[in-house]
């Protein structure tokens, strides 16, 4: 009979958790202008939620105040690799 395939070792759960400690979470909000339909991203602010109308901010292109949050996302960034860029 043939030999069983050699699989790489499974990492310990502690190794995975330690890796996550070195990463930093960055949250972003995607805004859409109701007047010119332009989309742009800005840093997440407390109180942002999807479909929230923002009357206190103005569009970067047309300067109207018809902005709405259409999406919120987060990404995990390794600060050590970001400094090298």
Write the layout of secondary structure elements.
Blueprint: H1 13-21, E1 24-33, E2 39-43, E3 53-54, E4 67-77, H2 79-84
Antiparallel strand pairs: 1-2, 1-4, 3-4
Description:
This protein is an alpha+beta fold and about 80 residues long. It has one domain: Rubrerythrin, domain 2 (Single Sheet), CATH 2.20.28. It is built from two helices and four strands; from the N terminus they run αββββα. Strands 2-1-4-3 form a four-stranded antiparallel beta sheet. A hairpin with a 5-residue loop joins strand 1 and strand 2. The radius of gyration is 21 Å and the shape is elongated. The mean pLDDT is about 80.
Short structural summary:
The protein has 85 residues and is α+β, with helices and mostly antiparallel strands.
Q: State the helicity in percent bands.
A: 10-25%
| Arithmetic mean pLDDT | 82
Strand order within the widest beta sheet: 2-1-4-3
What's the CATH first level?
Mainly Beta
CATH topology: Rubrerythrin, domain 2
What are the segments in which pLDDT stays under 50 over at least 5 consecutive residues?
A: none
What is the CATH architecture annotation?
Single Sheet
SSE class: alpha+beta
H/E order of the elements? HEEEEH
How large, in whole angstroms, is the Cα Rg? 21 Å
